[in-house]
Write a structure and sequence with these properties.
150 residues; alpha+beta; Pnp Oxidase, Chain A; ten-stranded antiparallel sheet; globular
């Protein structure tokens, strides 16, 4: 598990592309674990500030309750369709898994929740500029960055 600034220090170019991809859309999808153990997906917004990855939630929201109970999560960037032509220009698809750590700030308005995300895995998928294969990049704290063609 690593904080975003540690991921950036180890793999600056990869981390920059993943961050840029998540910032292409305002919304992304958050997966949490319900009290029953079933998955829950919700729209959310990420915030890359102070060289860290943050997630905010409305006070008392089900997302916040899920993360307080079980801090494991997955995030998927907002989906952008692959263009019909020039598929190699597609911006790609980014996902990450991690653990939410609640940050208590008495100055936050309305008692909203703020979580700092420790990253456990990142996946980034693109189409090669030659448009003849996919490029799958995965990063894990123990294994580092791996790139595969599919």
């Amino acid at each position: 598990m690593m904080w975003w600034h540690e991921v950036t220090a180890r793999e600056p170019e990869f981390a920059a592309r993943v961050r840029q991809r998540f910032q292409k859309t305002k919304q992304c999808t958050l997966a949490t674990i319900r009290k029953s153990g079933a998955p829950r997906i919700s729209a959310t917004e990420l915030d890359f500030t102070e060289d860290e990855l943050w997630l905010g939630c409305i006070a008392g929201s089900v997302k916040a309750r899920d993360l307080r109970r079980d801090p494991r999560l997955a995030l998927h960037c907002g989906t952008i369709d692959i263009p019909d032509t020039h598929q190699g220009a597609w911006v790609g698809d980014a996902k990450l898994a991690g653990v939410a750590h609640e940050f208590t700030d008495p100055d936050r308005p309305g008692g909203s929740h703020r979580f700092r995300i420790a990253v456990t895995e990142i996946t980034y998928l693109t189409i090669a500029p030659t448009e003849d294969h996919l490029v799958l990049e995965t990063w894990h704290p123990d294994r580092g960055l791996r790139r595969r063609r599919r």
